[in-house]
From TrEMBL:
Domain called SusD-like N-terminal: residue spans: 107-224
Signal peptide segment: 1-19
Keyword terms: Cell outer membrane, Membrane, Signal
Stored Gene3D superfamilies: 1.25.40.390
Domain RagB/SusD, residue spans: 347-658
Similarity section: Belongs to the SusD family.
Top-level lineage group: Bacteria
Record-linked InterPro entries: SusD-like_N (IPR033985), SusD_RagB_dom (IPR012944), TPR-like_helical_dom_sf (IPR011990)
Protein name stated in the entry: Membrane protein
Chief location bin: membrane
Places the protein is found: Cell outer membrane
């Protein structure tokens, strides 16, 4: 994987996604979940296959490991930063076309094989068991194949569509590798999800497996992704029908007519229809508007917060699918412990400043005499309650001291400790932090907090965005859904007041520190309404790993040049906190008269090193009062990312390896390959032809 591993590109598709590994993998039987031809004759047997793909298709906190799971999946974007900058995405020297390596298609091949075994028996009525269960497991298989292809679509765009295992002849296998236009791939994915919707149950106990509404949400996600991608990338060579689209001269595409407007319309209408089904059927989990628990009572204080941090998510109205953890089964994680002690991650100033004030005005329209950002408490004051709930600040509850019977406050982010437990920007995420003390007993794996996988709020946002992108107006349903999201977030102002106060000369000012990348498509500022919709999505899904896909489909990174990631306003006040003091030894006389030595904080000494050397732990005040995690080390000390992030257009899609180009070509001639190279990438192992 060339992009940050946190972005999870196609976990099931092995080393780098779906190319044809030696163009011979499709002819073999699956390497796992294989049985004799007589298998898959009962409903119970059918169910053993799809369940094995849940863990890798749907993100979770992992099982074990010293990390914060989904809470770090936005790292490497303008939302979130880890210790190491995202060189792969924002450097032109790191990510090159590889000479070898083809991604395995084992997962798609396995699903194809399963369908070939099951569907003939199903249509012949030869599978024994509850018809509802039989239908459901077949529906899951359709959904799994759809999601495998969706991951391939996001990474490569144009892609082969293969629904059966193939014979071993080389010519047949090579022709099977013909990349189909991405709109055809997306239509195929939607048809697969339609089949899934047809067969899946309307409900499943505790929402532990897919349902009809879950598949409808996934359909709206796919359709919105493709509709907005084709709209905002038009003319770049990444959309079928563009003059520079690499597939235009391929034999199998000759005679095809690409009506780009019609394709965008189709996908956006599909997104609206599926999203509406879910949004009308599923209510949002309510927010009590309480922003801290009354410890030691740690549950029952706010359903919206606890939807991300409870043992069981069964009963939360909004949850369509979630992952359960279990001590008995030794399926555990460490997320709550990591979040409160440091995650090697942190929200950016740009993300934090995108949250509105409670009255619905943008942050830059606040009264600066009343509201400032010299403390994190101040940053959160009178803001969108999603910021208040899901970002740690000084006065937020951290835990409960049973011995002293007091609530321990968060007090200060862990900014200068060793990288693996550092709050990189000073803005530490609280989403997914469970206040149940049994979830964070030291650094041992004890956390069994469930993880939301699919939330109905996404359907609300998908409808709002798709309808506006299609019709350039907010219809009654869009306004209804948007009002419900804003009301839950504690925002009192109207949608129109927010839009009218949104100043695109500020939002799209590339010279403004920490501007929002989502204010652009193809390097051009978008209108205030569309931007307000994108901002809403950014705030609703902060810390949930959705930012990268959104930025890609919006074509929102063309303008990113020398973008410097910033965090808290460190040098105004926070640098004075006792956490940053050194220590001194003092002599203390105990009640028994015996004298001992103790280490105590010493405000005359500092732990802060901001000299730009390899020992530095904070960026220099001379650079900015805001902490800049990638400018801690000076440029003179070999910091290659000191000047910030610069995006290269080739990076919207993955390159195809030279080996794949050759293996999928008659006579190994790259010019004749069926699996052609993506736009802006060369057919040699050099730097990409990165357009600016």
């Amino acid at each position: 994987m060339r992009q940050h591993s946190y972005w999870r590109k196609a976990l099931l598709l092995s080393s780098g996604l779906l190319a044809l590994s030696s163009c011979n993998l499709l002819d073999r039987e699956p390497l796992d979940q294989v049985g004799p031809d007589s298998y898959y004759g009962t409903a119970e047997q059918l169910g053993t296959f799809p369940i094995n793909y849940y863990a890798s298709l749907f993100p979770g906190h992992g099982n074990g490991g010293y990390h914060a799971g989904i809470a770090t999946y936005d790292d490497g974007t303008d939302n979130q930063a880890t210790t190491n900058p995202n060189r792969s995405m924002f450097s032109n020297t790191t990510w090159k076309v590889e000479s070898t390596g083809q991604p395995s298609i084992a997962s798609i091949r396995n699903v194809n094989w399963y369908m070939e075994q099951v569907l003939p028996k199903f249509y012949a009525g030869k599978i024994v068991g509850d018809p509802t269960d039989i239908n459901h497991y077949i529906g899951e298989a359709y959904a799994i194949r759809a999601l495998l292809y969706f991951e391939a679509l996001k990474v490569y765009g144009d892609f082969p569509i293969i629904t059966q295992t193939l014979p071993t002849e080389l010519e047949t296998l090579q022709k099977a590798s013909q990349r189909r236009p991405r709109n055809e791939v997306a239509r195929f994915i939607i048809s697969e999800l339609d089949s899934a919707i047809k067969y899946l149950r309307p409900a499943f106990p505790a929402n532990q497996r897919l349902t009809k509404n879950a598949a409808q949400l996934l359909k709206s996600r796919v359709a919105l992704y493709e509709g907005t991608f084709e709209k905002h990338h038009r003319g770049t060579g990444r959309v079928p029908g563009d003059a520079t689209w690499p597939g235009k001269d391929k034999e199998w595409n000759k005679g095809k007519v690409f009506d780009q407007d019609a394709e965008v319309k189709f996908f956006l209408e599909q997104a609206m229809a599926s999203a509406k089904v879910v949004a009308d059927a599923v209510s949002l989990t309510p927010n009590s508007h309480k922003t801290n628990p009354d410890l030691p009572t740690f549950s029952g204080w706010n359903s919206y917060y606890e939807m991300f941090a409870s043992r069981s998510l069964d009963g939360f109205s909004e949850i369509l699918l979630w992952r359960q953890y279990s001590k008995d089964k030794r399926i555990l994680h460490l997320v709550s412990h990591q979040l409160v002690t440091g995650t090697n991650s942190g929200w950016t100033r740009g993300l934090v400043e995108s949250f509105l004030m409670k009255d619905g005005l943008p942050y830059y329209k606040r009264n600066t005499a009343t509201y400032n950002d010299v403390t994190i408490d101040n940053v959160k004051k009178d803001r969108d309650e999603r910021l208040q709930l899901f970002l740690f600040a000084e006065s937020d509850a951290r835990s409960y001291d049973n011995a002293k019977k007091v609530v321990k406050k968060y007090e200060c982010p862990n900014m200068i400790d060793k990288p693996e437990v550092r709050d990189v920007t000073g803005y530490a995420q609280r989403k997914y932090y469970n206040y149940d003390p049994s979830m964070r007993q030291g650094s041992e794996m004890n956390d069994v907090s469930g993880v939301p996988i699919l939330r109905a709020s996404e359907a609300y946002l998908n409808y709002i965005e798709a309808s506006y992108e299609l019709n350039r107006t907010l219809d009654a349903d869009a306004r209804k859904y948007w009002d419900q999201l804003r009301q839950r977030a504690g925002i009192t102002g109207t949608i129109d007041a927010t839009i009218n106060a949104t100043d695109m000369s500020v939002e799209a000012n590339v010279n403004r520190a920490s501007y929002d990348w989502g204010a652009f498509s193809q390097g051009q500022a978008i209108d205030p309404t569309l931007y307000s919709i994108r901002r809403e999505r950014r705030c609703e899904f902060a810390g949930e790993g959705m930012r990268h896909d959104d930025l890609v489909r919006w074509c929102a990174m063309d303008q990113v040049k020398n973008y410097v990631i910033e965090g808290v306003n460190f040098w105004a006040k926070i640098h004075e906190y006792s956490y940053f003091w050194g220590t001194k030894t003092v002599k203390v006389t105990g009640p028994d008269g015996r004298e001992t030595e103790e280490l105590v904080p010493d405000p005359t000494q500092t732990r802060i090193i901001s000299d730009g050397t390899s020992k530095a732990n904070i960026s220099a005040k001379s650079l900015s009062t805001y902490h800049r995690p990638y400018q801690i080390i000076s440029k003179a000390n070999n910091n290659d990312m000191f000047d910030g992030y610069t995006f290269y257009q080739a990076h919207y899609l993955y390159p195809v390896s030279i080996q794949t180009l050759e293996l999928c070509a008659p006579g190994n001639k790259i010019d004749a390959t069926y699996f052609y190279q993506n736009i802006n990438w060369p057919t040699s192992t050099d730097n990409p032809y990165a357009l600016k």
